[in-house]
Design the sequence.
C-alpha cells in the first residue's frame, strides 16, 4: 500500500502521515524533513522563504531514499509531488523501482483555518513529530517537549504569516493541479475540524480501497 498526501501548508499532512504510518506500518517519507535533515545552508534559505528546491534535486533525493527501502515496504509520502513535473517524474521513478502508485489523499482546509494553525505549531527537530497547543488532540503532553523522544520543540523557520502567503499561493498554482493529474486515484477528506476527525475519514478510505484486495 502506497499513499501520497497532498494538502495546503499547515493542513496537517505531517500529523496524518505519522498516524497512517504507525497504524498501517508504512514508511513515512516527508520530503520537507529529508531536506531539513541535509542541514545545508542554501537549502535552508530556500525553505525559510517557502521556496521550492529544484525538481531534479528533490526527485533524486526521493529516488535514492526509496531505493533504501525493503522491496515490499509500503510508504506514505508527505510533500511530494508538489507540481506536475514532479508527478510525471514520480511515475517514471516508480516504474524504474517496480513500485505502485497507490492512492492520493487530499486534505481539504480553508486558508484562514490553516493559517491560524501555523501560529502555535511546533515541531521536533529530532524525530519530526508535530504538535499544536491550540488543539487537545495534538497538544504536547508537556508544553515545549516532544512526546515521542523528549527533545525540545521548535517553531519552523517558515511558519510565519508572510511565508505562509507565499507557500499557499505556490500550492494553488503548482501543487493543486497535481490533484487533477491523479484524479482517478484521488480521495478527499475534510481536514478543518481536528486531527482525530481527519484520521477517521482516512481510515474509512484506506479500509474501503484496500479491504477489497
Ligand atoms: P513541508 O515540510 O512539506 O511543508 O516542506 C517544507 C519546504 O521544503 C517546502 O516549503 C519547500 O521549500 C521544500 N520542499 C518540500 N518538498 C518539496 C518538493 N517536493 N519540491 C520542492 N520543494 C520541496
Sequence:
Amino acid at each position: 500500500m502506497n499513499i501520497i498526501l497532498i494538502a495546503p501548508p499547515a493542513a496537517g499532512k505531517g500529523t496524518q502521515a505519522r498516524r497512517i504510518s504507525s497504524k498501517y506500518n508504512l514508511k513515512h517519507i516527508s520530503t520537507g524533513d529529508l531536506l531539513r535533515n541535509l542541514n545545508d545552508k542554501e537549502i535552508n534559505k530556500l525553505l525559510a522563504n517557502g521556496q521550492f528546491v529544484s525538481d531534479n534535486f528533490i526527485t533524486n533525493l526521493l529516488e535514492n531514499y526509496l531505493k533504501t527501502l525493503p522491496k515490499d515496504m509500503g510508504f506514505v509520502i508527505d510533500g511530494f509531488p508538489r507540481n506536475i513535473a514532479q508527478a510525471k517524474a514520480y511515475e517514471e521513478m516508480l516504474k524504474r523501482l517496480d513500485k505502485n502508485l497507490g492512492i492520493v489523499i487530499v486534505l481539504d482546509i480553508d486558508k484562514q483555518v490553516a493559517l491560524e494553525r501555523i501560529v502555535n505549531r511546533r515541531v521536533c527537530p529530532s524525530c519530526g513529530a508535530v504538535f499544536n497547543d491550540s488543539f487537545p488532540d495534538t497538544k504536547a503532553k508537556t508544553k515545549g517537549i516532544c512526546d515521542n523522544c523528549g527533545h525540545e520543540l521548535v517553531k519552523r523557520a517558515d511558519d510565519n504569516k508572510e511565508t505562509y502567503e507565499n507557500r499557499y499561493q505556490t500550492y494553488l498554482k503548482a501543487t493543486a493541479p497535481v490533484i487533477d493529474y491523479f484524479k482517478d486515484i484521488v480521495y478527499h477528506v475534510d481536514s478543518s475540524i481536528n486531527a482525530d476527525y481527519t484520521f477517521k475519514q482516512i481510515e474509512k478510505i484506506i479500509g474501503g480501497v484496500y479491504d477489497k484486495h
Q: What stands out?
A: The two ends are 11 Å apart (CA to CA). The domain at 2-109+162-212 is CATH 3.40.50.300 (Rossmann fold).
